[in-house]
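Input record (one chain):
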Amino acid sequence: MGAPVVHFEIGCQKHESTVAFYRELFGWAMEGFGPSTTMVNTGSAVGIQGHFNSLGHPPHQYVTVYVQVEDLEASLAKAGALGGKTIVPPQEVPGMGHFAWFQDPEGNCVGLWKPMGGAC
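The corresponding structure, as predicted from the sequence alone:
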């Protein structure tokens, strides 16, 4: 299963290394679309696709996104091994699921989501 997202655009200054980080973390397929944009295929029929964008001017880092994963702790650990860091450890949203936030090497804050129906 891919790692589906609800909606995203991720801004970055170091375009190539940011794209490489997410490709390795989630296994997403990437395709360049001009010099400053990379389109994303999450590999999932759930959710929508998105893109990375380097505007060439501030703001460079901007994002609000939740990525659904099988295992929050494992995803946070892998993000850390790739140069990211945990911002918010797994927290319960009563009756719905669990979320966590990490920061990627570029400084973007990204949310992870695991719906109810299994331990996180």
